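Dear all,

This email documents one entry for the complex benchmark we are building for the journal club exercise. For each entry we list the sequence lines for every component of the assembly. Then comes the predicted three-dimensional structure of the complex as a token string, followed by one or two observations. Please use this as the template for your own entries, and keep the labels exactly as they appear.
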Amino acid sequence: MSGIRVRALTKAYRSIGRRHPVLHGVDLDVQPGEVVGLIGPNGAGKTTLMSCIVGFLRPDTGEVTVDDRASDDLDVRRRTGFVPERMNFDRRATGRAFVRYMARLAEVPRAGLDARVDALLERLGLAGAAKRRLGQYSRGMLQRIGMCQALVRQPDFLFLDEPTSGLDPNGVFLVRELIAEQKQRGAAVLLNSHQLAEIEKVCDRVLFLHNGVVARDETLRDATRIVIAVTLLEGSFDPAAVAAATGIEPAGNVLTATVASDEQTADLVARIVGAGAGVVDVRRRTADLESIFRGTA
Amino acid sequence: MSATVILETLRRHFAHIAYVAAVLMLLLIGTTMAAVDGPAGATFEIMKLFIIIAGCQIIGPEFSSGTLQLILSKPIHRARYLLSRVAGVVLALWIVIALAYSADVIARGIGGHKIAWLTSGGAATAVAAQAMLVCSLMALFGSFTRSYLNVALYIGGQILLSMIGGFLQIISKIDRGAFAALGAFLRSHPGVISTIRTIDRNVYPDPPPIPFDRNWLLLVVSNAAIALLLACLIFRKREVPYGAD
């Protein structure tokens, strides 16, 4: 199975006598089993990009393929899950009726459909509210039911637009778990979110969209790459000696390094100690999205 | 067509308080008219407003609320979805027409009045065909507009076509003054006025002169089919940015 592939995508909105370019040649890949976060300031083009990938908007130029097919191909749709930022559906429908309807549209076989719907509602913590009307749901509950309908057919391609907005901490943990499960299954997940901490926790890679282009493509998790932060005991070391021993200049009393294994981490710490520095703490960390975001935006 | 979408559309109508209230009101009016031996088929005249209200909700509001984007992320062809939505709304309207017709017959039977099978049945059939045409036009207008603009186009078009037709008819009779040249042009090209009147008659047909008029029914059904075809062609290509209005 191929993943999601975007090449040289451009898109502009048109109104009477005006053309407002939004995307200026975006390239993007999401492999099966990979979770990619999409972040950027308001107006960067995140929603437009996702709309083009899901097939709601037509790109002006460029190419969007999902598993080597057009994204609005019905076979691709069968394997696609999409969670919008705001769930809008007939408010008189019950939660269960809504998920059941979406499951039928997703062509979930009739045999086992009810069991699947009930299991998902249970998993998302909505079993007790399944018979309540959507109009009585809170924003967080609507987000959860949105997740339910997206997962009803175990999608290979999952598009999430702010899936944790309006969720309480338990809901956030649950969504995190669900995303990890989808990744484990081999699904390609594209997540659009403003919550940098959340992106950092669930994504393997993050794309910074700025002024309609991918300004940075940052790998957060990689089996061959671990970022560690070593906190040194203040006053116990000579920065020049530590830099000479490790090849890395400490920033204040923190030395950040990229290593490939735990053995390399141990070796680095040994060299720091060998340079006469006291080590207070060694932590594995991902990229600092906030500083990257500030730098990009 | 998708049975799932048709059934969901029916469910939405049956669960809507406005639909239930309108049905009860129509039944009440129909029964009362029949009980006092009022003109057969009069209830169906009132139904036209109900048809417009039901028809305008086919696609525009779904587009504006963001529901459509959710639906289109599922494996359903756009044209299939649109046609199923139209079928669901038309079915919901046909159910009301059938109920109104039954109420009329039953009330006349109970009241001991003569049951005008032909007149009443003809009126019911005509309004059922009109429901199909109105819903198809609403789908067509909704395929390139948002929210409830389709109903504005439908009613606006009706007013505009009759106004233009009447206005040109008057001008065609003028043979002096500022409009003399235009009047002469319209007299020498009668096709201009007749084209506008033909469009008017096709899009907004008056009830048939005789019950079960086959030509009239054919005209209405074929116009509905053309409107649906155009609606599907436009809707297939339409962009659907997500997010509510």
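Observations: Chain A touches chain B at residues 47-48, 51, 54-58, 74-75, 77-78, 80-82, 84-90, 92-93, 97, 101-102, 104-107, 149, 159, 161 (CB under 8 Å). Residues 225 and 260 of chain A are 5 Å apart (CA to CA).
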